[in-house]
Specification:
The protein is of the alpha+beta class and 96 residues long. It is built from two helices and two strands; from the N terminus they run αββα. The protein has helices at residues 9-21, 73-79, and strands at residues 48-52, 68-72. The protein has a two-stranded antiparallel ribbon.
Length: 96
């Protein structure tokens, strides 16, 4: 497949199928703003984005429906490629 696979028809179809389910964010449980679309969706923190339960960098399948999850843009970005549900604890400063 030439170019970016996220620009292809199968990936767009997977995104639309996941969007049609209208599920809450699988990471925080909050309601996703599915009404935000177009260029604004790429910048709005509460907009829908397709997340993968097993990150692509750790061998997850880009086009597997079982690996697809609905998430807020902010939650997807904050999660990164972690697979655990626990959030990382805030570390205190080592300065006395």
């Amino acid at each position: 497949m030439a170019g970016n696979p996220r620009n292809g028809r199968p990936y767009r179809r997977l995104c639309e199928q996941q969007r049609a389910l209208g599920l809450p964010c699988w990471w925080c449980g909050g309601q996703i703003r599915y009404d935000i679309t177009g260029p604004l969706a790429g910048r709005h923190r509460d907009a829908f984005t397709l997340d993968h339960a097993v990150p692509l960098s750790l061998g997850g399948d880009l086009l597997d429906f079982a690996n697809a999850r609905s998430a807020h843009r902010r939650c997807n970005s904050a999660r990164g490629n972690r697979t655990d549900i626990k959030r990382q604890p805030v570390r205190s400063s080592r300065r006395w």
